[in-house]
């Protein structure tokens, strides 16, 4: 039953997240919201809705290992697994000017996350700082783009354009959005319940489950978006999707979750996994800036690193 809960929860999360993003984007289009805003907020952050709801559910259920492991594991998986798969399909050309701003924000968010988690507990005050930093990032980006369009803004617009356009109907789109939200919440509840059951029945920590099954499952929307982007020749969108998702995971998901309930960070994550996350982030920035592309060889290195990391987790479990 626990495996069925996990499988059903993951399916509901992915389906719910997709409905939520599509419904919200159609609503925004019907209200004449600019594509830049749609790409930066609804698409960029909407794909992280499964991680947010799952971490909230886990923290409220008294499973901090799942909550923090989901965020750290998702950020590791986004870089090593998802970007690796995307660049293996087609090398990703990088506009270094477009990368400069968001790459710097990702580096800053990662450093802030490392500092907060190294304290052992992420309290409400820290959560408020994280959420304020995220809102400042979004607000500053929108303000700068209104004054002067940039290549970075073009990436967010392209993210919005990835979603198919349908005739907008307010009633239908509102129902899709609500149905997606409900399905995401239900899926998160099943996933957390099943993950806790698996950890108990197999005698392994909830943190390991959060770093592996939960993190990979909740990152499926990012995988779909990135693969879709590279297949359409929009490799820069795939890179931007990974960077934006990782920023939101750290500032938004950890911040909002800590605002609701302070989170104790497991010792295992403090000793190993946050440093793997930092190394993966550094690799992303180095690969993206050297040669202005992420090549297939670099993609292979990312995937091999992820396989080694998963192998180490399973061996130590």
TrEMBL record:
<dbReference type="GO" id="GO:0005886">
    <property type="term" value="C:plasma membrane"/>
</dbReference>
<keyword id="KW-0812">Transmembrane</keyword>
<feature type="transmembrane region" description="Helical">
    <location>
        <begin position="76"/>
        <end position="94"/>
    </location>
</feature>
<dbReference type="InterPro" id="IPR004481">
    <property type="entry name" value="K/Na/Ca-exchanger"/>
</dbReference>
<protein>
    <submittedName>
        <fullName>Cation:H+ antiporter</fullName>
    </submittedName>
</protein>
<feature type="transmembrane region" description="Helical">
    <location>
        <begin position="174"/>
        <end position="192"/>
    </location>
</feature>
<keyword id="KW-1133">Transmembrane helix</keyword>
<dbReference type="Pfam" id="PF01699">
    <property type="entry name" value="Na_Ca_ex"/>
</dbReference>
<feature type="transmembrane region" description="Helical">
    <location>
        <begin position="122"/>
        <end position="144"/>
    </location>
</feature>
<feature type="transmembrane region" description="Helical">
    <location>
        <begin position="99"/>
        <end position="116"/>
    </location>
</feature>
<feature type="transmembrane region" description="Helical">
    <location>
        <begin position="238"/>
        <end position="261"/>
    </location>
</feature>
<dbReference type="GO" id="GO:0006874">
    <property type="term" value="P:intracellular calcium ion homeostasis"/>
</dbReference>
<feature type="domain" description="Sodium/calcium exchanger membrane region">
    <location>
        <begin position="175"/>
        <end position="314"/>
    </location>
</feature>
<feature type="domain" description="Sodium/calcium exchanger membrane region">
    <location>
        <begin position="3"/>
        <end position="140"/>
    </location>
</feature>
<dbReference type="InterPro" id="IPR044880">
    <property type="entry name" value="NCX_ion-bd_dom_sf"/>
</dbReference>
<keyword id="KW-0472">Membrane</keyword>
<feature type="transmembrane region" description="Helical">
    <location>
        <begin position="299"/>
        <end position="315"/>
    </location>
</feature>
<dbReference type="GO" id="GO:0008273">
    <property type="term" value="F:calcium, potassium:sodium antiporter activity"/>
</dbReference>
<dbReference type="GO" id="GO:0005262">
    <property type="term" value="F:calcium channel activity"/>
</dbReference>
<dbReference type="InterPro" id="IPR004837">
    <property type="entry name" value="NaCa_Exmemb"/>
</dbReference>
<feature type="transmembrane region" description="Helical">
    <location>
        <begin position="267"/>
        <end position="287"/>
    </location>
</feature>
